[in-house]
Amino acid sequence: MALLNHIIDTLPVMNEEWSDAVLFSPLQAEQAMMDQFADTLAVRVFLKMANLPYRLEQRQNAYFMSPTGEVPFLRVKNSLTAEFSPIVDFVGKKGIKLSDSLTASEQSDIQAYCALIEETLRNAEKYISWLDEECYDKVTSGRYSSVYNWPLNLFLPLLKQREVYNDLSQNGWADYSTKTVIELCDRCFHALSMKLGSQQKYFIGGQPTELDALAFGHLYTILTMQMPKDDLINTLRKYPNLINFCKGIESEYFS
Fold first, then answer.
1. Domain boundaries, given as residue ranges, for the chain
2. How crowded is residue 135: how many other Cβ atoms within 10 Å of its Cβ?
3. Which end of the chain is more exposed for a tag (fewer CB within 10 A), N or C?
4. Residues 24/27/32/37 CA torsion (nearest 10 deg)
5. What is the H or E stretch that residue 164 is in?
6. Locate the Mitochondrial outer membrane transport complex Sam37/metaxin N-terminal domain: which residues (predicted)?
7. How confident is the model at residue 6 (pLDDT cuts 50, 70, 90)?
8. Are 189 and 235 in contact (CB under 8 A)?
9. CATH architecture, range 104-254
10. CATH classification of 22-94, choosing from 1.10.10, 1.20.120, 2.60.40, 3.40.30?
11. pLDDT tens-digit profile of 49-67?
């Protein structure tokens, strides 16, 4: 209730400041990669949880508009903030923290599980999209190049693939096999499933937090984005409470 009362008290000021807030992303249906779609969805539901108004604008040049080259990014007045965690921090500095009423231990748990999702599922999504040969040939190359004309549509996907390979090489993910990546995701799903339990609506406490937003973004994307292989989605389907969690968040914030 403390968080709800705080949000109500600050709504007039926040609504004025956020009246022109825009969340920029690549074209979601045609262009966005799995990790970008997941992060955009996570930010969207986080802003809804925080009761902050925004307008979603899909731009084919969103990468080049972003202050960091990463998407999605949020524009509020003259501020530009890219990616999920920095956006959560930006909102927190404005006085809205979804986990503010939780104990220090619970907040530490949120940070730990958010880190697990970002370090495991986001890297896995990048790996599968760009380094799994079948997925790259059948899905990624076509999606990424769909907004570019010849000859950019020929070499820009290859440049991006090299960039992702170098990025994943820094943390060892580029050396993994697809089987190992799926196994790491399974461990992440298992940890999230155990934390959620069978009766809880949210991961921690009785109100949604940034962990719920981030988990929903990535889990829902894995469940719904069409991929040539079913290994990852079938692994997630082993955890019915995570499936039900996604259904609940979707119904609450997007129905």
1. 22-94, 104-254
2. 20
3. C
4. 60
5. helix 152-169
6. 41-159
7. low
8. yes
9. Up-down Bundle (1.20)
10. 3.40.30
11. 999 999 999 999 999 999 9
Question: Which residues are CB-neighbours of 96 under 8 A, at least 6 positions away?
Answer: 6, 7, 10, 14, 50, 52
For 59, 152, 162, the CA distances from 158, given in Å and listed in that order, are 21, 10, 6
Rg (alpha carbons) of the chain, rounded to whole number: 18
Contact of 81 with 68, CB cutoff 8 Å? no
Nearby residues of 58 by Cβ (< 8 Å), 6 or more positions away:
24, 25, 26, 27, 28
CB atoms within 10 A of CB 240: 10
Report percent pLDDT > 70 for the chain.
Answer: 94
Q: Which two tokens stand for residue 181?
A: 């990546």
- DSSP for 34-64, please give it: HHHHHHHHHHHHHHHHTT---EEEE-TTHHH
DSSP-derived letter for residue 229 is -
- My answer on whether omega of the bond before 12 falls inside 30° of 0, hence cis, is no
DSSP single-letter state for residue 18: T
Q: Omega into 240 within 30° of 0, i.e. cis?
A: no
Q: How far is CA 70 from the centre of its chain?
A: 12
